[in-house]
Amino acid sequence: MRYTIDGKNGKWEVVMGLEVHCQVNSASKLFSSSPTAFGAEPNTQVSYVDAAMPGMLPVINDWVVKQAIRTGLGLNAKINKVSRFARKNYFYPDLPQGYQISQSDQPIVGEGVVEVKTEDGGKRAIRIERLHLEQDAGKSMHDQDPHKTYVDLNRSGTPLMEIVSYPDITSPDEAAAYFKKIQTLVRYLGTSDGNMEEGSMRADVNVSVRPVGSDELRPRAEIKNMNSLRFIRQAIAYEAQRQVDLYDAGESPVQETRLFNPKTGETKSMRSKENAADYRYFPCPDLLPLILDDAEIEAIRKDLPELPDAKRDRFIAEYGVSEDDAITLSNDKDVAHYFETAVGREKQRDGKMVSNWILSELFGHLNKENRSITESPISAENLGDLVDLIAENVISGKIAKTVFEDMLKTNRSPKKIVEEKGLRQITDSGAIEKAIDKILSGAPDKVAEYKSGKVALIGWFVGQVMQATQGRANPGEVNKLLKEKLGE
Ligand code: MN
User: Fold this and answer.
1) Closest CA to 74 of 291, 297, 305, 295
2) CA–centroid distance, residue 223 to ligand 1 (Å)
3) Domain end: 391, 420, 449, which one?
4) Number of Cβ atoms within 10 Å of the Cβ of 364
5) Which residues surround ligand 1, an ion (CB under 5 A)?
6) Which of 239, 335, 355, 410 is the most buried (most CB within 10 A)?
7) Can you give the pTM of this predicted structure?
């Protein structure tokens, strides 16, 4: 659904592009051998290169280059066999070099495309403009002392991939779906942990508005460093409305960088947006051009795992699950693995049934406890066994829920629980008949009522028999036998 805002003189649409920064999964930095581990004491992971001591030279980290190629291939993008590093010059206390080594007009990855599905069911292809490698800056710490700012250089030189989209995004919902898709992809590829809380994935969102139907690009605001899907949505909605209000008032937004304040839900101006020329980009004289050969790229391509879109399509084709369920199951690599283990490659259990147990019962529990699938108290194998017990008519769906509750608490095998608690379904019609006879002879008035036409009473009889058998009688069998005995 198109996201529009009503202005005084007509409707406006929103135009957005995202710049997503992902920290590359790498034990060491982009141009030095210092560790990148999160949460270390300030300034304990800083080499002379990271601190920009005079005379120090950067050396490219080959592992990081491979991760960028891997990510580019996952984005269906063109890998540039020749790319170059450039200096982006600006001053900041946490940037000791006085410039960031990044890539400018020759990034390592060129155009690509990702498909996103939004909450209203719409599907869109969002074009990627480029992916480039760059180093992260250090961190200024303003909250350690009332009068001083401290600088922690642990993050200085940490490898980042910046993934830049074209301004193809048309709603807050789509922006969130796109960001989530990038996160899913890098996690599948293993090239970034995509962890937003620890800042290893964050986005700058470029927002502008234009009258519906027009194809012009108006001045945009860049909202920096968004690290939550909820904030991304809020910030976009606020910013788009602010720009429409300006136009309505006869003013025009300026191209600038803005910050989102999660407490107020508003964005506020940080600085007027620099143009590329302001950074005085020039090729970094300390680094040779990065030259890749086809064999290297092909080797990485061969090593790619099955990616989420392919997995989703296969889940639909192979297991018959709905598209929505297939998306949920394939969005997270660990959930996908759990699902396939529970279905059992050889056993081929009913995929829809397994999927239902995971998505409603298991997720219901995990969400309540705020746990991830890898922390599930029920193993995928045990869940598969539970589905077998239902499919083989050993237990009814209702009893299965009782067994499931027990499994959550004890992580025991469902077979053991069924045997120990004597939950096996009674399918023997002799035993069921006995129970029915007892109920009928104990309630002659109800039998008479039924026979005189109050057939709705059948529900009451079924309930009594189920109760008498602790829910273990096969409900279909109970129904059939009851109707026989009541003379139908
Ligand atoms: Mn950047």
Assistant:
1) 305
2) 13
3) 420
4) 10
5) 162
6) 239
7) 0.85
Residue type, 187: R
CA of 193 to the centre of ligand 1 (A): 18
Q: Which range has highest mean pLDDT (156-160, 193-197, 442-446)?
A: 156-160
Q: Are residues 433 and 412 in the same domain?
A: no
Residue ending a domain, among 299, 329, 344, is 299
* Ligand 1 center to 240 CA (angstroms): 23
Q: Are residues 323 and 229 in the same domain?
A: no
Q: Residue 222 is inside which H or E element, if any?
A: strand 221-226
CA distance 107 to 209: 29
Q: How far apart are CA 108 and CA 60, in angstroms?
A: 13
Contact by Cβ (8 Å): 13, 3: yes
**Same domain, yes or no: 79 and 220:** yes
Domain count, the chain: 3
Show the CA angle centred on residue 327, arms to residues 322 and 328, nearest 5°. Answer: 100
* Angle CA 174–176–180, to nearest 5: 115
Report the C-alpha dihedral over residues 131, 114, 340, 351, rounded to 10 degrees.
170
pLDDT digits (tens, 9 = 90+) for 178-232: 999 999 999 999 999 999 988 899 999 999 999 999 999 999 999 999 999 999 9
β-bridge mates for residue 165, sequence order = 128
